[in-house]
Amino acid sequence: MSIGLLSFAVMRFSPSRSGSGRLEPPAHRIQTPRLMVFVPANGHMSDPIRRGISEDLHAVSFGKGVACDYHERPKELAVDEPMLAECIRVAAHPQLTEFPDGWVVDAARCAEHAVEGIVEPTKGFGEALVRVPVQESNGVVSVELPTAESVQVLAYSPPTEGLHPLVIDQWLLDASEPGDAGLTRWTRILGMLDADPPEELSNHIERLINRSPEVPSALG
């Protein structure tokens, strides 16, 4: 499978990342009930969390446009309003030994795929649902270094909460973007499967799900 096809299938628009690291063997599988982590969307996020995310979130360039990562076909987002996005900070991973430092934008959502919380938290990941301003300059769309005033944190899940991440293998690492640790998040896996990926990828993901130590109840 080509990189481009897989990139569409896993809905990537991501910024550059560091190397993927070494794989470690997975543990046994335990089915776990689905979780939802909500934080009021009125801005009443604790100041340390909001300040930490806004001060540590990496700037990112999307090129000529940014698209929703949960659409079956690419849907470009408007740049005249804040973007709804999922940001992650990897604290630990059972298989990867290298991952991005700090908070990074991992997925964007359009109005049709808007959510109010973290759909399926993944252990080892700090996850935040945010609204962050985007801008266009000289035909390039980007998120500049944000401030506490410009970032609205709608929901947050600490790395101690959620399910163990999806088990991955070398095939998936070789076909995905380097250092894409967010690919193992259950929110993205659920969204990817909902987007009807190519059969080869879908079958491979199903095999990895069957090997994973914990799975969302929706996939049980």
Précis, in short:
With 220 residues, this protein is α+β, with helices and mostly antiparallel strands.
C-alpha Rg (nearest Å) = 16 Å
Mean pLDDT: 78
Low-confidence stretches at least 5 residues in length (pLDDT < 50)? Answer: 1-44
Q: Count the E strands.
A: 11
Helix percentage range: 10-25%
Q: Looking across the biggest beta sheet, what order are the strands in?
A: 5-4-7-10
**Largest β-sheet summary:** 4 strands, antiparallel
The dominant shape is globular
Count helical runs. 5
Secondary structure blueprint with pairings:
Layout: H1 3-9, E1 30-31, E2 37-38, H2 47-56, E3 60-63, E4 83-90, E5 104-109, E6 117-118, E7 125-132, E8 135-137, E9 140-143, E10 152-157, H3 170-175, H4 186-194, H5 199-211, E11 214-215
Parallel strand pairs: 1-11
Antiparallel strand pairs: 2-6, 3-9, 4-5, 4-7, 7-10, 8-9
Description of the molecule:
- The protein is of the alpha+beta class and 220 residues long.
- It has one domain (3-219).
- Helix content is 20%, strand content 21%.
- The chain has five helices and eleven strands, in the order H-E-E-H-E-E-E-E-E-E-E-E-H-H-H-E.
- A four-stranded antiparallel beta sheet has the order 5-4-7-10, covered by helices on one side. It has a three-stranded antiparallel beta sheet with strand order 3-9-8, with no helix packed on it. Strands 1-11 form a two-stranded parallel sheet.
Identify the notable features of this structure and list them briefly.
220 residues, alpha+beta, 4-stranded antiparallel sheet, 3-stranded antiparallel sheet, disordered N terminus
